[in-house]
């Protein structure tokens, strides 16, 4: 995995009063009710800025079990 350092902004530009990268607080939810296999943090970033940390949901992948009989799943 990768690591993201959270620090303050430049002391020269705004006296270090902003935490960077910013933390995105927009609600994250699946479009349909579905089981989740995990979640994590994702860094959205553009050239020239510190970016945003946001929550990432990982839905369960049913594809490996498609077409199998019930006996093979037990």
Automatic annotation (TrEMBL):
List the protein's name. Answer: Uncharacterized protein
**Source organism of this protein record:** Trichogramma kaykai
Lineage here is:
Eukaryota, Metazoa, Ecdysozoa, Arthropoda, Hexapoda
């Amino acid at each position: 995995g990768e690591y993201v350092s959270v620090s303050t902004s430049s002391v020269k530009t705004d006296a270090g009063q902003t935490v960077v990268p910013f933390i995105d607080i927009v609600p994250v939810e699946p479009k349909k009710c579905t089981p989740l296999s995990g979640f994590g943090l994702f860094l959205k970033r553009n050239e020239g800025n510190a970016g945003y940390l946001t929550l990432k949901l990982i839905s369960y992948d049913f594809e490996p079990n498609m077409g199998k009989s019930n006996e093979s799943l037990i």
